[in-house]
Design goal:
This protein has 124 residues and is mainly α. 83% of the residues lie in helices and 0% in strands.
Length: 124
């Protein structure tokens, strides 16, 4: 699931880059301090101060995955809304598809957590 998510991030990033270039804009690398903070927290809770293995670690991984996914949903959703307002319908459709993909991953993680991982973590 995590590998699939990583592949999705790369695909969504490529879509965003293509849309920017399609507007004759230059791609600029920007360091995102918000995501940096999320990565720092994820490493803390899933590597540095995490249990060695088991359902509590799995629950922490899912929680961090979902925090980062929600950040992505917000960013892509905002850009999709801007594209729609600018009547860039094709761009909006592509961005909305990326948001839908992210929601699906988030929903799958919620289902996994609620049906198994969190229940097992409580008993751990």
């Amino acid at each position: 699931m995590l590998q699939s998510s990583q592949d999705g991030i790369a695909k969504h990033t490529d879509v965003l880059k293509a849309l920017i270039e399609g507007q004759d804009e230059k791609l600029k690398k920007e360091h995102c301090k918000g995501m940096e903070g999320l990565v720092t927290e994820a490493l803390k809770h899933t590597v540095e101060e995490a249990p060695k293995s088991g359902p509590v670690l799995d629950a922490a991984i899912i929680a961090q995955y979902q925090r980062m996914t929600h950040y992505g949903i917000t960013g892509f959703g905002t850009v999709a809304a801007f594209a729609k307002a600018l009547k860039l319908d094709d761009d909006a459709t592509k961005l909305e598809a990326a948001v839908k993909d992210m929601h699906q991953g988030d929903d799958l993680m919620s289902e996994l957590a609620e049906s198994a991982v969190n229940v097992e973590a409580v008993g751990d």
